[in-house]
Amino acid sequence: MIEVLKLVNWMRVKNHKDLQVDSLDVKKLTQMKAMKLLYYMQAASLVIYNEKLFSNDIVAWDYGPVVKEVNSHYHGMKSIVDNIDKNAWIDYSNIEKDKKYSFIINWVVNKFNSKTAHDLMKQTHHETPWKVTPRNQVIELSLIKDYFTKNNIFKGCQNQLKYQEFEQDIPNKESMSSIYEAIDDMHDHHLKAASSYEELEKILDE
């Protein structure tokens, strides 16, 4: 697991870096948006790895899921990317090195980069975990996992992860052309017709 305030530091640095890229449709990170991203990151970890990303409870407040410790730390602040210190950069670097967790948190941030905090707040209000949890009470992890699993919210993330894992198992995986060369030796035109690793995997499993 990752300490939640270090995870927020990762988000702060990530947002700071993304804001420098003109081609990205990125909104400035606010405390409220960070809360919602934490919620979706926790959900992704529960669905994909069957484990918590961070240990802190997520509470159902009026404006959506909240981690109280983060709210207390950034109390009274709206934007949280204006002053990024050395420790934040260290936290970012350390978390990026953890390929298991950095994969899912990058996926979540990239998915919701273009949404505002208000957009995400309204989105959580339409989702079962927040809707059925009494205000100011902890949202049960089982509710979160069950809802996001049933609704395939992180299917794209799961597919990308599966693709990467399969890619790592293939020698000379730099390009599909190297695979086609190996297939040529087998004289199997059916296999050669695969246009992606995913298609090739399906054929090989048959």
The low-confidence runs, each spanning 5 or more residues with pLDDT under 50, are none
Shape type: globular
Structural class: mainly alpha
Averaged pLDDT: 86
**Helix segment tally:** 12
**Share of residues in strands:** under 5%
Q: Strand order of the main beta sheet, please?
A: 1-2
Distance between the termini: 37 Å
User: Tally of extended strands?
Assistant: 2
Order of helices and strands: HHEEHHHHHHHHHH
Helix content: 55-70%
Largest beta-sheet characterization: 2 strands, antiparallel
Radius of gyration using CA atoms only: 20 Å
Summarize the structure.
The protein is mainly α and 206 residues long. The chain has helices at residues 4-19, 31-49, 68-73, 86-97, 99-112, 117-125, 128-132, 141-150, 155-168, 176-186, 189-192, 197-205, and strands spanning 59-61, 64-66.
